[in-house]
Design goal:
It is built from three helices and five strands. The protein has 119 residues and is of the alpha+beta class. InterPro entries: RutC-like_sf, YjgF/YER057c/UK114, YjgH-like.
Length: 119
Protein backbone atom coordinates (compact mmCIF):
# COMPACT_ATOMS: atom_id res chain seq x y z
CA UNK A 1 0.00 0.00 0.00
CA UNK A 2 2.89 2.40 0.65
CA UNK A 3 3.66 2.50 -3.08
CA UNK A 4 0.08 3.64 -3.76
CA UNK A 5 0.38 6.48 -1.21
CA UNK A 6 3.69 7.62 -2.68
CA UNK A 7 2.46 7.40 -6.26
CA UNK A 8 -0.62 9.50 -5.54
CA UNK A 9 0.87 11.79 -2.85
CA UNK A 10 -1.36 11.11 0.13
CA UNK A 11 -1.00 9.61 3.60
CA UNK A 12 -2.27 6.29 4.89
CA UNK A 13 -3.45 8.07 8.02
CA UNK A 14 -3.24 11.42 9.76
CA UNK A 15 -3.35 11.89 13.51
CA UNK A 16 -5.28 14.86 14.92
CA UNK A 17 -5.16 14.90 18.71
CA UNK A 18 -6.34 11.48 19.86
CA UNK A 19 -8.09 10.73 16.55
CA UNK A 20 -6.67 8.84 13.59
CA UNK A 21 -8.16 9.55 10.15
CA UNK A 22 -7.36 6.57 7.94
CA UNK A 23 -7.44 6.87 4.15
CA UNK A 24 -9.41 4.39 2.10
CA UNK A 25 -8.00 0.86 2.21
CA UNK A 26 -8.51 -1.57 -0.65
CA UNK A 27 -8.00 -5.29 -1.03
CA UNK A 28 -4.88 -5.29 -3.14
CA UNK A 29 -2.55 -8.17 -3.74
CA UNK A 30 1.14 -7.79 -2.92
CA UNK A 31 1.78 -6.37 -6.42
CA UNK A 32 -0.91 -3.69 -5.91
CA UNK A 33 -3.45 -5.27 -8.24
CA UNK A 34 -7.05 -5.90 -7.14
CA UNK A 35 -7.77 -9.29 -5.56
CA UNK A 36 -10.36 -10.87 -7.92
CA UNK A 37 -12.23 -12.93 -5.28
CA UNK A 38 -14.60 -10.41 -3.65
CA UNK A 39 -14.60 -11.87 -0.13
CA UNK A 40 -10.81 -12.14 -0.16
CA UNK A 41 -10.61 -8.56 -1.46
CA UNK A 42 -12.72 -7.35 1.48
CA UNK A 43 -10.60 -9.33 3.96
CA UNK A 44 -7.41 -7.91 2.45
CA UNK A 45 -8.81 -4.38 2.81
CA UNK A 46 -9.46 -5.07 6.49
CA UNK A 47 -5.94 -6.53 6.79
CA UNK A 48 -4.46 -3.34 5.34
CA UNK A 49 -6.65 -1.34 7.70
CA UNK A 50 -5.40 -3.39 10.66
CA UNK A 51 -1.80 -2.64 9.70
CA UNK A 52 -2.43 1.09 9.43
CA UNK A 53 -4.24 1.15 12.77
CA UNK A 54 -1.47 -0.86 14.44
CA UNK A 55 1.21 1.58 13.27
CA UNK A 56 -0.62 4.25 15.28
CA UNK A 57 -1.09 2.00 18.32
CA UNK A 58 -4.78 1.38 17.64
CA UNK A 59 -6.92 -1.60 16.69
CA UNK A 60 -10.37 -2.42 15.36
CA UNK A 61 -11.85 -1.86 18.82
CA UNK A 62 -10.80 1.80 18.57
CA UNK A 63 -12.77 2.53 15.39
CA UNK A 64 -15.58 5.04 15.92
CA UNK A 65 -16.67 5.79 12.34
CA UNK A 66 -16.59 3.77 9.10
CA UNK A 67 -17.31 4.72 5.51
CA UNK A 68 -17.30 1.93 2.96
CA UNK A 69 -17.57 2.18 -0.80
CA UNK A 70 -19.14 -0.56 -2.94
CA UNK A 71 -19.36 -0.96 -6.72
CA UNK A 72 -22.43 -3.24 -6.48
CA UNK A 73 -23.97 -2.94 -3.01
CA UNK A 74 -26.99 -5.13 -3.79
CA UNK A 75 -24.84 -8.19 -4.48
CA UNK A 76 -21.85 -7.39 -2.26
CA UNK A 77 -23.27 -6.20 1.03
CA UNK A 78 -24.04 -9.64 2.47
CA UNK A 79 -20.38 -10.63 2.03
CA UNK A 80 -19.18 -7.35 3.54
CA UNK A 81 -21.42 -7.87 6.58
CA UNK A 82 -20.10 -11.43 7.00
CA UNK A 83 -16.50 -10.18 7.05
CA UNK A 84 -17.40 -7.23 9.29
CA UNK A 85 -19.09 -9.58 11.78
CA UNK A 86 -15.90 -11.68 11.92
CA UNK A 87 -13.78 -8.60 12.61
CA UNK A 88 -16.16 -6.47 14.71
CA UNK A 89 -18.23 -9.15 16.49
CA UNK A 90 -19.50 -7.26 19.53
CA UNK A 91 -20.88 -3.97 20.76
CA UNK A 92 -20.23 -1.14 20.80
CA UNK A 93 -20.22 -1.10 17.00
CA UNK A 94 -18.80 1.89 15.15
CA UNK A 95 -20.97 4.25 13.14
CA UNK A 96 -21.10 3.03 9.53
CA UNK A 97 -22.03 4.67 6.24
CA UNK A 98 -22.05 2.55 3.07
CA UNK A 99 -21.90 4.28 -0.30
CA UNK A 100 -22.52 2.82 -3.75
CA UNK A 101 -20.04 4.04 -6.35
CA UNK A 102 -19.29 3.29 -9.98
CA UNK A 103 -15.48 3.43 -9.86
CA UNK A 104 -12.79 2.34 -7.39
CA UNK A 105 -9.75 2.09 -9.69
CA UNK A 106 -10.40 -1.58 -10.46
CA UNK A 107 -11.41 -2.53 -6.91
CA UNK A 108 -14.92 -3.39 -5.73
CA UNK A 109 -14.62 -2.37 -2.06
CA UNK A 110 -12.87 0.37 -0.11
CA UNK A 111 -13.03 1.22 3.59
CA UNK A 112 -11.96 4.34 5.47
CA UNK A 113 -12.26 4.94 9.19
CA UNK A 114 -11.79 7.33 12.05
CA UNK A 115 -10.37 5.74 15.20
CA UNK A 116 -9.47 6.87 18.71
CA UNK A 117 -5.85 6.35 19.56
CA UNK A 118 -5.65 4.73 23.01
CA UNK A 119 -3.68 6.53 25.69
Amino acid sequence: MKAIYEKHNYSAAIRAGDLLFVSGQVGSRNDGSPEPDFEVQVRRAFDHLAGTLAEAGAGFEDIVDVTSFHTDPDTQFETVLKVKDDILPSKPYPNWTAVGVNWLAGFDFEIKVVARIPK
